[in-house]
Amino acid sequence: MMRRKLAFWALFAVTMGVYGTMLPWSLPAVSAAAGGLMPFDMRPGGYDAGEARAFLAVLPPDGVVFYRDVQHRLDIAYSALLAATLFFAIAALMPRRFSAWCRIVALPV
Question: Using CB atoms within 10 A of its CB, is residue 5 exposed (0-12), middle (13-18) or buried (19+)?
């Protein structure tokens, strides 16, 4: 049981570390390169195709490289880590009487 808790908290720490890297460093760098426009990750209301094209059109070549090589990789890592963190949290909080199938069904949550 202790190993599971340690593994969960280690996973949580890595997840927050990636998020803590994106929030003050890579996302502001992408925004600055785009002339102050908000990156896709910081638009909670989403964006339409026109807004996406406008954002990508104002990015200079070095901004595109930074977005593609740094921010995109951090975003993929964060998404995967967050999904794993949430899965393990749900699995840990789910009563033991539920079968493995119930845990699998909870995956999309």
Answer: exposed
Q: Which two tokens stand for residue 46?
A: 């989403």
Q: Which domain holds residue 41?
A: 2-105
pTM as predicted: 0.83
47's CB contacts (< 8 A; 6+ apart) are 40, 55
Burial class (CB in 10 A: 0-12, 13-18, 19+), 40: middle
**What total of structural domains would you count in the chain?**
1
pLDDT tens, residue by residue, 1-14: 689 889 999 999 99
Residues 6+ apart with CB under 8 A from 7: 88
